Amino acid sequence: MIDHSLVKRFRQEVGDRLAHQRRLDQANGLPPMTGEDERQFARALISQVLEEHARNEIGLGRTPPTVEEEEALAAGIHAALFGVGRLQPLLDDPQVENIDINGCDRVFVSYADGQEVMHDPVAESDEELIELIQILAAYSGLSSRPFDTANPQLDLRLPDGSRLSAVMDVTVRPAVSIRRARLGKVFLSDLAGNGTISRDVAKFLTAAVAARKNIMIAGSTNAGKTTLLRALANEIQPNERLITVERALELGLDQFPELHPNVVAFEQRLPNSEGQGEISMAELVRRSLRMNPSRVIVGEVLGDEIVTMLNAMTQGNDGSLSTIHANSSMEVFNRISTYALQASERLPIDATHMLIAGAIDFVVFITKRNDYNIGGTLRRYVSSIREVNGCDGRVLSSEVFVPGPDGTAVPHAPVSCLDELAAHGYLPGGW
Question: How many CB atoms lie within 10 A of CB 187?
Fold first, then answer.
C-alpha cells in the first residue's frame, strides 16, 4: 500500500523545486526544458526528496522506507506530477475503455469486453479530486486551462491521449469522464482486422483519402469516430502538410513523425477570467487556411466553425476530414444546418445545403451497439457510407454502402466518382 499523504506532500515539494528551476533558467536566458528533460530532472528531484525523507526518519529514530516502498513512492510522485495520480494504474491497463467518476469514491470502469465494474476511490476527498484535475489542466494542452467556480467545465487531452471531461459546481459532486485512446497508431487495416470495417470499405476509404475526397465521419458518443479519423489520416502520404484544429488536443498526429513529419496542431483557447484572449474554433479554421495546408482536419464539429470549415472545403482544400455527432448518415445534413443557423453568418437552410453539396463528398456513419446475441459484447462498426450528389432545395445523396446481414456496411450502389477511386486502386465487387 502506498501512503498517499506522503505522495501528495512530496509532489508539492518536487513541484516547487521544479518551478524554481524553471524560473532560474528563464532568468539566465536559458531555453525551457523539453518535456522529456523536465521528466528526467523531476526523477532526480524525486530521488533527492526521498533521500532527505529517509535521513529525516533515521534522525527521528524511525524506520526509513524500504527499497520497495521508495520505488512505490517515486512512481506515485511522478504519476501525480506528470500523470493522473491514482488514476494512473487504470490508464496503464490496456483493457480499460472508459472511466466515469461521480465524486472521488464513486468510480465506474468500463472494459473493452463490455464489462463494467465499480473501482476503488481515486482521491481522499472531492477537494483532492478537483485539485488533481486542476493540476492536469495546468500542464496538459498548449495553454493552462482554469477549472474552478468561475470555470466549472473542462475538456482536455491527457498525456496518454485519453480525453478528459470534467464539471464542478453544476453537479452535486465533481464529475469526471475519461475516454481512453487505446488505439494511438491505428490504420484502416487494423479496423478491418477487428471487424469495424469490411475489406471492401477499407479499400474504398483508402482510395477516397488518396483521391482527396472530403469526408465527414458521423456517429453517436463513444462510437469510435476519432479512432476512424486517425486511421483515415494515417492513409495520407507523409509528404503532405496537415493542419489539425481541435477544442482540446486529441488526435495526436504530430506524435508520429514517421507517418506525418509536417503537422501543425491548433487548439482552441478559452477566455481568461476577464473574458479576454479567446481564440475560437472558427478563427483557428480560418487561420489554418493561411498556413499552407495540404489538408485541414477538424477533430470534431460542435458549433459555428462548421461554416468556416465548409467554406474551406470548397476553396481548394480538398481531402479534409472531420467528425460530427449524428444518429444516421442522413441526419448529418440537418445537424450541419442547425450549427450553421447558430453561426454568425446565420446561413438559411437552403444556403447551407448548397454549401454542403459543394463541400462534402462522403459521410461515413459508425454504429455502436451491444450485441446481446454474443454475450453482450460491445460492437463498433461502419454501417453506412453516403455519397453527396448535389443540391435541389435539399442535399441530394445516395447510400453507396448499406448495412449487411451483420450490420457492417456492404456495397449497395455505384459511386459517381468511380473513375477517380479506381485510379487509386479501388475496384468494387458485387455490383
Answer: 17
pLDDT tens across 63-83, in order? 999 998 898 888 878 877 776
Cell digits of residue 286: 480560418
Grid cell 459532486 in the structure block, residue: 173
Would you state the pLDDT for residue 95? 86
Instruction: Check for a shared fold between 89-182 and 188-424.
Output: no
User: Mean of the per-residue pLDDT values for the chain?
Assistant: 87
**Which grid coordinates are listed for 189?**
487495416
Could you read off the pLDDT of 333-357 as tens digits, one per residue? 999 998 888 877 778 888 899 999 9
Which residues, including other chains, have CB under 8 Å from residue 32's CB and lie 6 or more apart? 22, 25, 26
pTM across the whole model: 0.72
What are φ and ψ of residue 319, in 5° steps? 90, 15
| Domain range annotation of the chain | 1-82, 89-182, 188-424
Rounded Cα–Cα distance for residues 209 and 232 (Å): 7
- Kindly report the CATH number that applies to the domain delimited by 89-182: 3.30.450.90
CB 210 within 8 A of CB 233: no
How many Cβ atoms are within 10 Å of 108's Cβ, its own excluded? Answer: 14
Sign of CA dihedral 214, 220, 226, 228: negative
Q: 153 CB contacts (<8 Å, ≥6 apart)?
A: 166, 167, 170
Residue 155 near residue 179, CB atoms below 8 Å: no
Euclidean distance between CA atoms 381 and 223, whole angstroms: 8
- Please state, in angstroms and as integers, the Cα–Cα distance from residue 103 to each residue in 84, 110, 131, following that order: 16, 17, 13
Among residues 294, 291, 275, the alpha carbon closest in space to that of 236 is found at 294
Query: Which superfamily, per CATH, for 188-424?
Result: P-loop containing nucleotide triphosphate hydrolases (3.40.50.300)
C-alpha to C-alpha distance for 122 and 76, rounded to whole angstroms: 13
